[in-house]
Amino acid sequence: MGKVLVAMSGGIDSTVSAVMLHEQGYEVVGITMKTWDYASSGGKRKETGCCSLDSINDARQVAVELGFNHYIIDIRGEFGNHVIDNFVDEYLAGRTPNPCVLCNTHIKWESLLKRADAMDCEFIATGHYAQVREENNRFVVSKGLDANKDQSYVLWGVSQDCLSRTMFPIGKYNKPYIRQMALDMGYKELANKSESYEICFVPDNDYRGFLKRKDPTLEQRVHGGNFVDKQGNVIGVHEGYPFYTIGQRKGLGVAFGKPMFVTEIIPETNTVVLGEEEDLEKSFMTVSKLNMQKYEQLSNKMPAITKIRYKHNGESSIIEQVGDKIEVEFMTKVSAIAPGQSAVFYEGNDVIGGGIIYGGK
């Protein structure tokens, strides 16, 4: 069947993926990547998730029980240089980053592929709810069967070289089925294990506190900027522009007598623009830093469903590639287009490609 390197986080999805491949006759090699040591961030909560000692031990125990090799690799340096530095830089530039996309694109898959080559593994596998297939000599990520768990959005940046060797064993199943599989395999504790939806290096979900700990002078430097309305009138004082995101309503610290939302962030002047909900609605955006999957490039305008964030259902749009950017015209206005977030374009269930939102209007 071949030899496959399986990324094992210690969670239910990657564990079931490894067991499935093992039972199908593949020679499985497990690998757990230590990406982050939360204690070094100064956070107060106990370390949890894919980088915790408990999770690493859970992954190793499965490998021991099934009799395949398991390795732990420390990529904290690579992770910090790429993902965390970018996370901080993007907020300081007034944008809203998506570190999971960057991690998949530049860290996890590249690290897996490098180790797979060193171990003579033909394939790499992960526990993502997605599918991959070949069409017209291109490798395409498609949505997972379980619409509630589909993770194709965070995989738009994976390269053709990586996709050509990637397997998603659980992509054709829904989460309840996978949970039942874990129970049937005898992993009762794992099947009932809670899942984390937080950023792995910000498990207390306080990105503002994380930024302050990374740069102790930041709060002092940016505190006291102005809230302004769309006409430019000063309507309040804020805590510093990096601590706000497009679409934010709660936590502004100022009462306005009506709901107000962050509509624009201007880092050069430490200004945060506020408006009403209708002011968030846009019908056009530009997307840069592209990675194309289904088509190498777009020769004409084409219809697509465009998602502007992970939990966004997607909106009908017309997309056109102009040089190294894609221009997106939405059929109906969408709310809270945030520069720095990922835009992913779909044709049916297939990922056409994706990129980073540059701006909207």
Could you describe the 3D structure shown?
This protein has a 6-stranded antiparallel β-barrel. Strands 3-2-1-4-7 form a 5-stranded parallel sheet, sandwiched between helices. The chain has a 4-stranded mixed sheet with strand order 9-8-11-10, with no helix packed on it. It has helices at about 10-25, 55-65, 75-90, 100-120, 160-165, 175-185, 190, 205-215, 220, and strands at about 5, 25-35, 70-75, 125, 130-135, 140-145, 165, 225-230, 235, 260-265, 270-275, 280-290, 300-305, 315-320, 325-335, 340-345, 350-360. The longest helix is centred in the first third of the chain and has 20 residues, at about 100-120. It has 3 domains: about 5-190, Rossmann fold (3-Layer(aba) Sandwich), CATH 3.40.50; about 215-275, Adenine nucleotide alpha hydrolases-like domains (SH3 type barrels); about 280-360, Translation factors (Elongation Factor Tu (Ef-tu), domain 3), CATH 2.40.30. Helix content is about 25%, strand content about 30%. The mean pLDDT is about 90. The chain is an alpha/beta fold.
- Number of domain modules: 3
Q: Give the helix/strand class.
A: alpha/beta
| Sequence stretches where pLDDT stays below 50 over 5 or more residues | none
The level of helicity is 25-40%
